[in-house]
Amino acid sequence: MRLCFSRAIAELAPRRPALRLHLCGSGPDEKNLRSLTRKLNIGSIVKFAGWAENERLRDYYSAADVFALPRISEPLGRVVLEAMACETLVLATNVGGPSDVITHEKNGLLLSPDDVGAWRAAIARALDNPAWRRQQAAAGRLVVVEKFSWATIVRRFREEVFPRAMLPQPRSPR
Description:
Layout: H1 3-12, E1 21-24, H2 30-39, E2 46-50, H3 54-63, E3 66-69, H4 78-85, E4 89-93, H5 98-101, E5 109-111, H6 116-128, H7 130-148, H8 150-165
Parallel strand pairs: 1-2, 3-4, 4-5
């Protein structure tokens, strides 16, 4: 959880008593994150859920109004695909892997990692406009089904990769 995202949550929290943030995972940054939530006075709305198995993650994704990934280094964004597959609106940074999957304003939102106002506005928009949020989330799920389902991966492998692999390979001189 980046400082910018944390500040956006802190700015929204006083006007949104139902706002809750669930953080799944654990690691070396947890101590600093806990300290940051206390410093920003949002400790009461942040739940550190710890490591979650796949089945439990699906429950978190499905129950969420929004999934946010404010990281600046996310090569592919597997968690983005998982959230989109659960038909949850994804807000992510416009750097790295998420921009390969999310088309801004079509199936999610891509935000500058350091723009507190953009994160605050995006979260507020998602919470205040459930019909828009559901439309974006449905479009996100469609992208995952069309581009990343096992059926699609197998078909593309069969049509694009396998034929090239079967081409005669030049022999190296001995």
